[in-house]
């Protein structure tokens, strides 16, 4: 019957798992997942620092509400704190901006007060919101971030105050680089900014780890459906004779045959390996979109202390460099000053669960360079940084733990963004199955899911889930319908 079709899913991240779940539920019994590594979850990855559970990859459920499939699954599996389940929490709409209690420290070793910060924050939010409303056809709102400073008027303040506020704006740009997973805000399309949609609900975490989600989903799949340590080297599809099955070559030389393949490898991996991963190569329009869409690095550096040097109510700590009033989000020399890209730390709460644990955030080439340093080098630099900004000469971390997503050979970065010159069309091209349009009557051979293929929730876990379901549905509906014969 139709449900005998052989379906191979490449990648056991949340998108691959979601696709398998839907196909199995629809009665498909020849589904398998090939995963390069020895674990499932991909960029959902829970780790430990000492006895504390921390997230190496995805951190929050962005917008936990009824429309969010990750929230619904996590609730169903009983993985959330009671707080996150409250209807009030689901109704809060903060438009993606987190209402956290901040503290600001400057490189001169003093804490900044709110009056110094508020005008800069207000202006920055206006600029960002303005850009989100920007229609792509009107072009980019500013040519580069360095062009921001002349736009900033603040007439009746002295030069020192103006300079400090511009330094604060540089800090906020670095935050934005982390959120967007980009090296510089100059590299993302502000015109396309409005495509990304936020959901209501105050972002929440998984107290027992994000991997609880993937493990619960895997446990519901038939045993043995996932093959681990099985990297796929090449997908041999056939543009001409698409009625023939696809042949998949693995790194270990094994060859597998499938009627349909769902590719869920990260966009970063695709950018690097598309020429060897597909035979024949991807159609040109698809290839150009793979190249145009952005995929950047955002890493975390967890730092644990014996006792806190921050206030009990503090939720986020920003580090403002005094010499950045030219408005910059990149450092002049990566090797000597990569640490300037780290915008600061979020405080892990509640303290009873995490102790005195901070999470530092760093994006871009500076972050990629940080990955190449030893843990001791990173620890030393972080220690110097904190001592300088707090003016406390003896504060010493107990230990650190950092992520290294750029050098992860199966990810090659953190998550996707819309690069300059990107449009919705690029997302359409990326998710378009093979054989491409024009051969519509042919059976689907290769389908594309994964975080980067979602129209408005790219770069998120819920986006990835929805793309796995979407491609499973695409296959189910075509198979049940049968390849539509050419109508005359
Ligand atoms: C979210 C969050 N979060 C932080 C960090 C990271 C990400 N995300 P996978 O990669 O999981 O799976 C692919 C599999 O394929 C994998 O297992 C590979 O091993 C395998 N593979 C590769 N090659 C293969 C081969 N050849 N053969 C076989 N197998 C192969 N998302 O919702 N909340 O807090 C964060 C964060 C440090 C790295 C995140 C977050 C992103 C998610 O982790 C990610 O989207 C999904 O897990 C991807 O699942 P997948 O299945 O597609 O791929 C305005 C505007 C701006 C827009 N952005 C704003 C939103 C902010 C996004 N924020 C993220 C922030 C954090 C902190």
Characteristics:
seven-stranded mixed β-sheet, binds FAD-MDL72527 adduct, alpha/beta, 488 residues, 16 helices
Number of strands: 20
Output the number of helix runs.
Answer: 16
- Helix/strand structural class: alpha/beta
- Termini separation: 28 Å
Q: Determine the oligomeric state from the structure.
A: single chain
What small-molecule ligands were found?
FAD-MDL72527 adduct
| Rounded Rg | 24 Å
Widest sheet: strand order? Answer: 6-5-15-16-17-14-18
The description of the largest β-sheet is: 7 strands, mixed
DSSP helix fraction: 25-40%
Query: What is the 3D form?
Result: globular
The portion of residues forming beta strands comes to 15-25%
Unreliable stretches (pLDDT < 50, length at least 5) are: none
Mean pLDDT: 92
């Amino acid at each position: 019957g139709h449900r005998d079709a052989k379906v191979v899913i490449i990648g056991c991240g949340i998108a691959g798992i979601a696709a398998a779940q839907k196909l199995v539920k629809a009665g498909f019994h020849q589904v398998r997942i090939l995963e390069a590594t020895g674990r499932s979850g991909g960029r959902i990855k829970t780790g430990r620092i000492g006895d504390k559970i921390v997230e190496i990859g995805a951190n929050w459920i962005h917008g936990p509400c009824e429309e969010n499939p990750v929230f619904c699954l996590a609730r169903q599996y009983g993985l959330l704190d009671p707080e996150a389940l409250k209807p009030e929490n689901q109704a809060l709409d903060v438009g993606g901006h987190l209402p956290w209690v901040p503290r600001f420290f400057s490189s001169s070793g003093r804490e900044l007060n709110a009056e110094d910060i508020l005008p800069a924050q207000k202006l920055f939010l206006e600029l960002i919101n303005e850009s989100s409303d920007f229609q792509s056809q009107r072009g980019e709102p500013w040519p580069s971030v360095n062009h921001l400073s002349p736009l900033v008027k603040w007439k009746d303040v002295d030069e020192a105050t103006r300079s400090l506020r511009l330094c604060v704006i540089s800090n906020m740009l670095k935050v934005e680089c982390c959120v967007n997973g980009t090296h510089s805000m100059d590299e993302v399309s502000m015109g396309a900014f409005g495509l990304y949609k936020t959901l209501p609900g105050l972002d929440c975490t998984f107290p027992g780890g994000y991997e609880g989600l993937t493990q619960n989903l895997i446990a519901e799949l038939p045993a043995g459906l996932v093959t681990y340590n099985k990297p796929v080297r090449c997908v041999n599809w056939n543009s001409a004779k698409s009625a023939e099955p696809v042949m998949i070559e693995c790194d270990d030389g094994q060859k597998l045959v499938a009627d349909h393949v769902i590719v869920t490898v990260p966009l970063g991996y695709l950018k690097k390996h598309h020429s060897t991963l597909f035979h024949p190569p991807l159609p040109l329009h698809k290839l150009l979109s793979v190249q145009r869409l952005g995929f950047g690095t955002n890493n975390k550096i967890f730092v644990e202390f014996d006792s806190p040097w921050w206030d009990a109510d503090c939720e986020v700590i920003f580090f403002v460099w005094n010499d950045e009033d030219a408005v910059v989000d990149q450092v002049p020399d990566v090797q000597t000053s990569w640490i300037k890209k780290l915008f600061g730390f979020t405080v892990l709460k509640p303290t009873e669960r995490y102790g005195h644990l901070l999470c530092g955030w760093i994006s871009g080439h500076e972050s990629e360079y940080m990955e190449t340093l030893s843990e001791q080098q990173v620890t030393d630099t972080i220690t110097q940084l904190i001592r300088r900004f707090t003016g406390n000469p003896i504060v010493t971390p107990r230990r650190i733990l950092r992520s290294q997503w750029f050098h992860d050979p199966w990810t090659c970065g953190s998550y996707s963004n819309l690069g300059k010159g990107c449009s919705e069309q690029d997302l359409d091209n990326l998710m378009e199955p093979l054989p491409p349009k024009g051969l519509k009557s042919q059976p689907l051979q290769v389908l594309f899911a994964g975080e980067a293929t979602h129209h408005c929730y790219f770069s998120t876990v819920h986006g990835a889930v929805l793309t796995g379901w979407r491609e499973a549905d695409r296959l189910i509906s075509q198979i049940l319908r049968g390849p539509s014969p050419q109508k005359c």
